[in-house]
Design a protein that fits this description.
Largest sheet: 5 strands, antiparallel
Number of strands: 17
Oligomer: single chain
CATH architecture of the largest domain: 2-Layer Sandwich
CATH class of the largest domain: Alpha Beta
Low-confidence stretches: 8-12
Number of helices: 14
Strand order of the largest sheet: 2-1-5-4-3
Helix content: 40-55%
Distance between the termini: 98 Å
Radius of gyration: 49 Å
Structural class: alpha+beta
CATH superfamily of the largest domain: Histidine kinase-like ATPase, C-terminal domain
Number of domains: 3
CATH topology of the largest domain: Heat Shock Protein 90
Mean pLDDT: 80
Length: 516
Amino acid sequence: MSNPPPSLFSDYQVLTPGGFLALLDAAADGIVIINHKGQVLNFNQAAERLFGYQAQEVLNQNVKLLMPNPYKEEHDGYLSHYMESGEPRVIGIGRRVEARRKDGTVFPIELSVGEYLEGQFRYFVGIIRDLTHRDGVETALRQSEERLREREQALDVTLRNAPIGIMTLDLGGNILSTNDAACTLTGYTEEELLHASCSKLLDPDGIALTEKHRQEMLAGEGDGFAQNCHFMHKEGESVYAVLHCALVPGPDHKPDRFVVQLVDQTEKIKAERDAGDARERLAHVDRISTMGEMATGIAHELNQPLTAISSYVQACIRRLESDNLETDKLRDLLTKITEQSLRASTIIQRIRSLTQSHERFRERIDARRLVADTMILARADTNSRGILLEVSDSGRPCEIIADGVQIQQVILNLIRNAIDATEASDAGSPRIIIKTAVSPAGDFVEISVRDFGVGVPVAIRDRLFEPFVTHKKSGTGMGLSISRSIVDAHGGDIWSENFEDGTKFSFILPIAVGAR
């Protein structure tokens, strides 16, 4: 490498020419020193790495060797113009241009040019920084931002056109954004929903429950919940939906907003209600039919207390006519009249509760009580037929949440089938066993009806609970089908077991929470 003119170092007393060159070679950026003719006087090691030339290949060469077109063609003109007019075209800091390596590749650089005047000589120092990596990073960042923006746009389009209602809420429960499905579901426009409180869409119970969940999430007790909700459409129609809510953290990992999904369940709820109404109507018809089949037995059972009442009243009249007013005797007769009238009244009440059409209503009730109430009517039928009813239970509480009338209907249907099977057999001591038990885990109550009759024909055992399947000459084939639908609607299960000497029908229902 040739040394610069000695005049460059005439003012330096401490830094030697060798030290100056070492300092240039230590620089991280490429440094090129040229004279007023554009000839390269110094080419540091960073410049060698940058351009791929050794210093010996470049020294005393025109610096345009390092330039691609159009810079290469224009450089000498720029330099001559500056030397003649003093008007700079290149000198300055941080100019972005392109450079050319020895292998011909062109790459972006940041060029800063400084000038040094020594007598009549002018020297120019170019500091060159490779921008390839920075451009790559900037390009990657720009592409990443573009992809993110495209994804956000695609996500926005997806959410806006999603088939379920989606909204975002601030931490106070006010609506920040909403999609088209949410607007359709509620009947409100986007403008009407924005900044409104989410409570605008819920009934009082839903508001209270949602607020409870919201406070729990903000307190760090979970990051989401789901609940059934009901609200009024803007036009006044009821809307049923499942509300899913999730808490979304911000960049600082602190709660930022809520995302809410509303899944419309209105048609499903209406369909279930329609099916329930149809099931209740069918069950009502079946109960009327069952009462018709039991009419003889019930009439016989009612005739007994009525006959007894008549006899006791006549006895009272005779005593009154004979002036034989024995108070204790009269009180005893009147007590018996009361007992018999209550007996008849109870039977009539059971008949009315089973035959009247009623709204579906579930309550907390002991399964043993349902069985006992059903036995009042069942015994009215079995007594007249000479069939013994044996009833047993485990003695453990077995409360369920149920429509009592419907569950009694299931029990009565099973007993009626057992009566028919028993009458068709030649059993010497006809009997039916009704048993109530709680499962070992305490989560279900099982009610079973065991007969010792003719059993179920093999041909229909697998289809026993299907509609219109029966082996009885006068049967409709709907009793067991209706019973299954009632048990299913209560979250239970029903099945049958066959024995050599009869059949046992059983069904289970979930024990009510807190009753275990």
